[in-house]
């Protein structure tokens, strides 16, 4: 149910944009998706997010909200009649926010470096913090999912959205390195979780296809290696 | 709430630790404070147990359960104890507050630190200009009263001027009239002024931390 005009500035490969889309889908909010072209920032984006000039930007009644996790919380608070994204208990909310913060500050920077690593040694070095991070997240899943299948328990919730959006990049990394980062042996909890998450109706249409995303990431790597800086 | 139910592992000079103390004081919550020797890297077994991921202060313990990361702790405090509201009530204002709080920690803090440790001022100035614009016309980022963004921006109000004094390098110049006025209001406001860390101790610490060249 749309509460007034809702638009989302984003692009299909971006995990951060995916967070906002999943949140809107969970709340059954109708929105217009404005796809930004690679390498070109639209005037609307520059005007709506002058500080960072980055997607995603949610426009609600033309008012911009920036930063993906800020957007997810905003969606949760405005469309309060839909299923809750953040847990109701303050301690559970704190745990979810802590791990979402960990994913953004430590895990994703390590993950992002992985497909860029050239050569066996560099790849092994890049793999180490990613595997460490996944081990911590496996523990967090075991400690907080209350039987699962999601981090939020029976329902998909904030941390599922915050971390699950990176499954596309994780899969690309697995393809490029030939290493199953999430697997039944080292991360059994996450292995089951990943399948459930990607199959969820709010996620399945916005999770990019692995081949398409691999091609996109390769294009980015090529662009970066060709640019002067 | 009994005092022993709320504990804070902090460090006397840390702005992150003080954020949590300011919030607890503004809400009138009694707590037991445990000083961690972060400078000597002599972390207590409790700290390592309660924050195994980052091994850092502040960590708040409530009913035996640990919460880490200062902004996460601030939101927890605001949601658990009523009374003085830290975050605004209205969703768009809350989103705006969270946006600026993130900006402060992700962009401002590292750039301000670099400006003193490496002499690279440009990025810090750009970031402070954005905060200056956000603050224009307001007493505090939170409006009439100190709020979430003010608490998170505490290092700009009190720590930065002391680093300036210790190093002789200025960052908050006259091109920041709103921030300069704000920082004076902030450090002299009722609850905050009673819980600031020792001025002399901090200046001495920063003199050693940023030796002049």
Concise synopsis of the structure shown:
The complex is a heterodimer of chains A (229) and B (213). Chain A has helices at 15-26, 43-48, 68-78, 90-113, 120-144, 158-164, 167-177, 188-199, 210-226; strands at residues 6-10, 32-35, 57-60, 63-66. Chain A has 229 residues and is of the alpha+beta class.
Which pair of chains has the greatest number of interface residues, and how are they split between the two chains? A-B, 22 and 22 residues
Helical element count of chain B? 10
**Cα radius of gyration of chain A in angstroms:** 18 Å
State the helicity of chain A in percent bands: 40-55%
Give the SSE order of chain B as H and E letters: EHEHEEHHHHHHHH
Number of helices of chain A: 9
Percent strand of chain B: 5-15%
Order of strands side by side in the largest beta sheet of chain A?
Answer: 2-1-3-4
- Percent of residues of chain B in helical segments? 40-55%
Structurally, how many domains make up the residues of chain A? 2
Cα distance, first to last residue of chain A?
A: 46 Å
Largest sheet of chain A: 4 strands, mixed
CATH topology heading of the largest domain in chain A: Glutathione S-transferase Yfyf (Class Pi), Chain A, domain 2
Could you tell me the number of beta strands of chain A?
A: 4
- Low-pLDDT stretches of chain A are none
Shape of chain B: globular
Enzyme class (chain B): transferase
GO molecular function (chain B): glutathione transferase activity
EC number (chain B): 2.5.1.18
InterPro entries (chain B): Glutathione-S-Trfase_C-like, Glutathione-S-Trfase_C_sf, Glutathione_S-Trfase, Glutathione_S-Trfase_N, GST_C, GST_C_Tau, Omega/Tau-like, Thioredoxin-like_sf
